[in-house]
Structures are given as structure tokens and as C-alpha cells.
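Entry: GTPase Der
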Amino acid sequence: AAEEGFDIEDVEGAIEEAGHGPLPVLAVVGRPNVGKSTLVNRIIGRREAVVEDKPGVTRDRVTYEAEWAGRRFKVVDTGGWEQDVLGIDASVAAQAEYAIEAADAVVFVVDAKVGATDTDEAVVRLLRKAGKPVVLCANKVDGPSGEADASYLWSLGLGEPQPVSALHGRGTGDMLDRVLEALPEAPAQTFGTAVGGPRRIALIGRPNVGKSSLLNKVAGEDRVVVNELAGTTRDPVDELIELGGVTWKFVDTAGIRKRVHLQQGADYYASLRTAAAVEKAEVAVILVDASESISVQDQRIVTMAVEAGRAIVVAYNKWDTLDEERRYYLEREIETELGQVAWAPRVNVSAQTGRHMEKLVPAIETALAGWETRVPTGRLNAFLGELAAAHPHPVRGGKQPRILFGTQAGTKPPRFVLFASGFIEAGYRRFIERRLREEFGFEGTPIHISVRVRE
Ligand code: GDP
Ligand code: GDP
């Protein structure tokens, strides 16, 4: 591929970068005010967003991408919630539990100036139970005189405390080195231990769309008790359910059934739970209440699944309640509000009557097939050649940027790298995506296209 002015190393580098599989997940947990958000900002090298958030404002984004020493991973930030009606211990425990569930490794942040509190001890018990690798971050060690404070935290029994000043950056590099040692290359949740096991489904959607009703309906009499099945993990929050002769793992079903009535922070928990479930799953079945207007919250959930790169099915529930008028408006709303997943298989169901339940599995299988599709390089380039001949990029400044060649760098979801002779406009990129979908399917999957421009 040293053709057309790209040297082979650039090409290989670009393919490797674009082809990365799903990233391992790091959760940052701890009490309020120990400096989690400040630390997350350091880790992801960001100056915007998190710290700007005003108290009480719901943050729907909890997962960020980060890179250290050439390795990429995701960070789940749990700093965005307020202490709520549950009381401090319960709130810390609840948010930590969700985050730890979804994580491959955990940074546990303690305020070294304050020392270990009872709440910290409670989190330590959760961490022990989860058995995930932990890096203990002794934060607010702003100078050498604070090192002694950090050493008191040996008492937590989590190994060596890493003295850090999230605020000034002191010690964060050493801590991140430890994090990389603790993090697996690929997420175990998604691709390690579970390879060859049941496919993993996250059933997500805003409160009251009918998630637990649907789960009960599909599980029916055939509900499989998780630890009865040999060789499966005894993860109490996941549930094995046989559908269409195949066993599927519904992840984080405890989260679906759990009825924690929270006043403050409920939306934040819901976001965290959705993010956690999505991280653990291969395919997200997004439930939308068809009887009500599609909301911003529905859109956020869709965005979360798309950004996580999961296979997606959209199920419109409560179909039994729809009259003709509502049906008419629903179709308009789907077009205008959910255009970002126009490619996802759609099923119109009723968890109450059981309507179209049998269509769920074929839709899930379609989405997973799209998610795993690989287009051979020869076919891709024949397609790109025809595309460029029939619909060349518009001429800009007397020049015509061309796609020179391309390759699919990865799957789950499909990722493409295109090499171009000049800047390719967003409109033309969207056109390429549309045509790729028409040609190769990709039903039910986001696709990533990155473009490299010859220098
Ligand atoms: P969170 O609630 O755990 O997310 O905590 P924040 O990141 O919001 O930090 C709480 C407070 O501690 C803020 O006022 C931060 O500026 C402060 N803080 C965070 N990290 C450090 C640090 O390393 N040293 C000092 N001195 N203060 C810090
Ligand atoms: P979740 O919060 O998403 O788990 O929602 P639930 O399963 O608890 O359902 C919320 C409410 O919607 C309950 O009162 C259900 O009985 C009702 N519901 C769920 N699915 C359907 C449906 O298909 N049709 C009708 N009419 N009601 C439904």
C-alpha cells in the first residue's frame, strides 16, 4: 500500500489504530469530594465538561476515552452525583457497585488528608467482593509532606497507596502506570472470558418503558437459573434466558428489577446503570415507550449505545395501547428524533400481550451479524473505485480530493480507514457511509469511518 504517497508505516499505523477492539474499562470510585472528577479530568487530559458541571445538573455522560503510554481505555466517572435520600454510605455503595460491575479495573480514590473513613471501608468491602484489580489512589498529596498521610492508607489492605495530587498532577503518571498493569488489553467482560459463551444483551430504556415487563415476558417459564448452568459465571445481576432455542445472557437485569426510589440523583443512577449494562453487552435492545412522545432521555440512551459501538435493536413497546393517530405521530417522531439509528432493526412489541415477541430474536441476530460483518479489502476497493467514478468529491479550491484506497480495520462494530489525497468533507463522508450501508448491509450496527489525508 505504499502507493499514492502514503508510506507503509503510516498505513499500518492507521489501520492498527482504527482497528482496536473494544477498550478495557476503568472505573474511578470513592466518596464525594475526594477528587474523583478532578482525577478523571487529569486522566482524560480534558479541561472542559466535568468540573464545569453545576451541582444538581444531571450529567448523562459518564464514560470517556483516555490514553496513557500508547494504550487506550475507557474511564467511567462516578463523580457526578449528589448525596441523596439514601444517605451517604448507601449512595456511595450504589454508585460504586454499578461502576465496579462494568469495570475491568478500579481506581479507588481516598482523601489522604482525611484518612480512611467508614464509608471508605464500605467501598473496600465491595471491591473485595467484586475481585477486580484495584489501584488505591491517595489523593490530595500536593507535596512531599503529604506522603506520610498516604502511607496510613496501607491499613485499607488494598496494597500500596499511590500518592497523587489530582489537582496539580503530582504522581498521576506513576498511578497511571499502575493502572495499565492492572488493566487487561481487552475487556474481559466483552471479549475475554465470555468468548463462545452466550451472547450478551443489554435491555435498556428510560424508566417505565417496560423493561422488567419485557424481561418477564420473554423469560416466561423457561427462565434459567444462572448457577444451574455449568460453566457460566455466577453473576447475580445477569440472567440466562432461552429464546428461539438459543441461550442469551441478559446483563444487569438486577438493575432493571431493582426499585430504588431516589429523588435526587435518580437520573444519574439511571445513566450510570445504562452505561454499565451497555459496556457489558454486545447488543443493546433499546426499549421505547411508543405510547408517549420520544424524549430527550430516549435519545440520550440511543446515543450512549451508538457511542459505545454496540449492535442495536429498537423495540417500540406498549403497541397494544396505540390508536391510529398516535401511530401516525410516532412514525414522524421516529424519523425526526431517532434518525441516528435509522439503520437499526425495529420491532413493534407489547410486553403485556406478548405481541411480536417472536420477532425480537431475529432482530437481535440481524444486528449482531451486521456488527460482525467484514468486507474483504478487494471488494471494498472495487466499491470505492466505482463510487468515486460515479460520484466524485466536489472540487474545492481547484482541487479534487480523492479516496485513494481503504480497508476495514476491525469489526464489532465495523471500522474503516480510508486514505485520501485531500480533506474529505463531512457531507461526503456521510454519503460514503450511506453507500457502504446500501452495498454491504450493516443493519443494526454503528460503523466508524476514519480518513487519513496524505501530507
Ligand atoms: P469528587 O466529588 O470526588 O468528584 O471530587 P472533586 O473532583 O469535585 O474534588 C473535590 C474538591 O477537592 C475540589 O474542590 C477539588 O479542587 C479538590 N481537590 C481535588 N483533588 C485535589 C488535590 O489533589 N489536592 C487538593 N488540595 N485538592 C484537590
Ligand atoms: P421499566 O421501568 O422499564 O422496567 O418498566 P415496567 O416493566 O415496570 O413497566 C412500567 C409500566 O408499564 C407497568 O405498569 C407495566 O405494566 C406497563 N407496561 C409495560 N409494558 C407494557 C405494554 O406492552 N403495554 C401496556 N399497556 N403496558 C405496559
